[in-house]
Amino acid sequence: MMAMKILVTYALEDERGNIEIPGCSLKFCCTGVGKVSTAINTYEALLKEKPDLVLNIGTAGTLNHRVGDIMLCSSFLDRDLEKISGFGVNYMLNFSEDLDSLGFFKDYKKDGVVSTGDTFLMSQEESGKEADVFDMEAFAGAMVCKKIEVPFLSVKYVTDIIGQNSIRHWEEKLQEARDGLVIFLGNLQR
User: Fold this and answer.
1) How many structural domains comprise the chain?
2) Whole domain around residue 19: which residue ranges?
3) How would you classify residue 171: left for phi > 0, otherwise alpha for psi between -120 and 50, otherwise beta?
4) Successive 10-residue mean pLDDT values, the chain, 190 residues
């Protein structure tokens, strides 16, 4: 079986550990923080690497899960665009069918939803539409992948509960998140 070529994207170098996925050839792209830098850097890496899959990894806040949970997400929404959705703006993307046809992660529940916005959420009131995890980059990477027709999956490690000293908890949990993602991805079965 030929090795699947995966482009692993992440916002900060501190989120990437020594990642290996059995049976896969990995390329890495640090996108930077925020939607604009993520879109630009993901697009450039896609054109250069031509992967079979983009795997976005990193940290996220939550309202409904526990710190330390790892969420596999195939649906993405932009909570900033959601505010103007009445004008016909598409603010939701789903990769479930793309991932199913690829056959990767087939034995894993991957129905999580990432809500992306331009700000680090500090309170529940800012969160908008309900989602499993909240970040500042995933939707932008997903949008680029939809345009170029490359499957996209986000694997998020929950570092904080939104509204409970989120920034401090995120900083404290960064090493734990990096280590947790390395272990999780290293144990995947293709």
Assistant:
1) 1
2) 4-186
3) alpha
4) 86 85 90 94 97 94 89 92 83 86 72 83 59 91 96 91 68 79 75
